[in-house]
Design brief:
Elements (H helix, E strand, L loop, with lengths): L3 E6 L3 H10 L5 E4 L14 E5 L4 H4 L3 E5 L18 H5 L6 H10 L3 E2 L7 H12 L5 E2 L1 E2 L25 H9 L3 E3 L2 E9 L2 E8 L2 E12 L6 H7 L12 E8 L12 E4 L3 E5 L3 H9 L9 E8 L5 E3 L4 E3 L3 H20 L6 E2 L3 E2 L23 E2 L14 H17 L2
Helix pairs in contact: 1-6, 1-10, 4-10
The protein binds flavin-adenine dinucleotide (FAD).
Flavin-adenine dinucleotide (FAD) binds next to helix 1, strand 4, strand 9 and helix 10.
Length: 409
């Protein structure tokens, strides 16, 4: 009865990497809720979820993700660092080979010196003078095509940024099918196969498959699990971040964002431009333009303290989160002062790395399998917040699942 060996729900970081591994040997179908957009139009795929039922009472944390073929990787700013190596090893998961594969596939390397912008160079110089040790960010960018426009988070007008579309296109060339605009709702066990119940372009469509890999991302995977009768824990993290910044006398050109970073125990700081800084300064009576602004992002490893419900997300800062943000803000403020910023303003807290909503050791085992026998592979299974960009690890996890399946048959 079933047509497919593997149905993969979600075409983002982990789902696409798993599809690329399996499509040569198996009949694979990739289901994606969003549209098949061109990279230059990726900004149309933004989903801005809000964190609380009652913003006025709890304060609001905006949680960003993307919906479209390629998932949130279309909006990513191409940072490619290894995370969770130690934490996953505690569950017997060694990603060494898979990290290497992804790094090779995407030719991940630090930004060359001639592509570093004026803000980044100034922040690196002042941070070094203060005794910190900034590193150049490894990126998934073809630097021959990159125009350093600083708009990776909108897609890429120059086809320079590398995304999961690469794995999706490769999977299709090996025979995988893709259905965009298909929203999976629920997974049922039906004899020795699975039934994925969903909606395709407004009409109900149910698909049988021998196996299912659920990779709908940390905000949607728990909904599908709960619909399917698997209860998920209150374990949501988002890698909370704020951007602080202000006006300088300099006139900077556009540049690659997060081109350098300084890692600390439970947060990183990184040069970042936020449009919101201009508005915040204006509210204080200070007029500024994009070229005057210099900013630093403080991104923390937040506590796994939140929940995805059917209709809302609960996520608030814990006391520890506030302490970590304050520690990062204190260091970043010192650097910005040395860069010549007089009045420093801060954006509100945002999260762009939601995860932990179906963690390994609770919802899935170390083979990424649920109690119903299908797999989950995306940021939901991460055991704790990375406090650092997780894309490379999520792609490596997709490859790992693919390798495990290929090696077991
Ligand atoms: C603006 C921004 C910039 C970022 N930059 C970086 C960066 O530079 N480096 C980095 O490491 N990380 C970055 N991240 C984070 C990174 O992109 C995500 O952590 C990662 O893509 C998550 O991977 P995933 O596989 O869990 O889910 P996703 O990549 O989000 O993929 C999930 C997919 O499933 C689809 N889906 C959801 N529900 C359903 C359903 N019911 N049926 C079918 N399909 C469904 C979604 O539409 C989506 O396409 C960034 C995030 C944002 C928002």
């Amino acid at each position: 009865m079933e047509k497919y060996d593997y149905v993969i729900i979600g075409s983002g970081a982990s789902g696409a990497a798993a599809a690329e591994k399996l499509s040569k040997d198996y009949k694979v179908l990739i289901l994606e809720k969003g549209d098949y957009l061109q990279l230059k139009d990726a900004h149309k795929s933004y989903v801005r979820a809000s964190s609380a039922k009652d913003f006025d009472k709890h304060g609001r944390i905006e949680i960003l993700s993307g919906t479209g073929v390629g998932g949130t990787t279309l909006l990513a700013i191409a940072n490619g660092v290894r995370t969770h190596e130690k934490e996953l090893k505690n569950f017997g998961i060694d990603l060494k080979n898979e990290f290497q594969e992804v790094e090779k596939d995407f030719d991940i390397k630090p930004i060359p010196d001639n592509m570093l912008g004026g803000r980044t160079k100034l922040i690196i110089e002042k941070a070094r003078e203060l005794g910190y040790n900034p590193k150049i960010m490894p990126k998934m960018i073809n630097f021959k095509k990159c125009k350093a426009c600083g708009k990776c988070n909108m897609g890429c007008a120059f086809q320079a940024k590398k995304t999961s579309l690469y794995y999706i296109e490769k999977s299709i060339s090996m025979g995988a099918d893709l259905k965009a605009n298909f929203e999976a709702i629920k997974i049922e066990k039906s004899g020795n196969q699975f039934l994925v119940k969903g909606m395709e372009k407004g009409r109900q469509n149910d698909i049988y498959s021998k196996n299912v890999i659920l990779s709908a991302g940390a905000l949607d995977t728990p909904k599908i699990l709960n619909n399917s009768g698997i209860k998920t824990p209150r374990n949501l993290f988002v890698d909370l971040f704020v951007t602080i910044g202000g006006k300088t006398e300099n006139s900077f050109r556009d540049e690659i964002q997060m081109a350098a970073y300084i890692p600390f125990n439970d947060f990183i700081i990184s040069p970042y431009y936020s449009e919101r800084i201009i508005k915040l300064l204006k509210d204080m009576g200070i007029e500024s333009k994009r070229e005057n602004i210099i900013g630093i992002m403080i991104k923390i490893k937040d506590d796994s303290y939140g929940y995805v419900d059917k209709n809302y997300i609960e996520k608030s800062c814990t006391g520890r989160d506030v302490q970590k943000i304050s520690n990062g803000v204190a260091i970043a403020s010192k650097i910005l002062s040395e860069c010549g910023v007089d009045k420093i303003v801060s954006t509100e807290a945002i999260g762009a790395h939601p995860g932990g909503t179906a963690p390994i050791g609770i919802t899935v085992d170390s083979n990424f399998k649920t109690e119903m026998g299908f797999y989950v592979c995306d940021a939901s299974i991460l055991p704790e917040a990375p406090g650092s960009p997780p894309l490379l690890s999520l792609m490596a996890l997709g490859k790992k699942l693919g390798n495990n399946i290929l090696n077991s048959t």
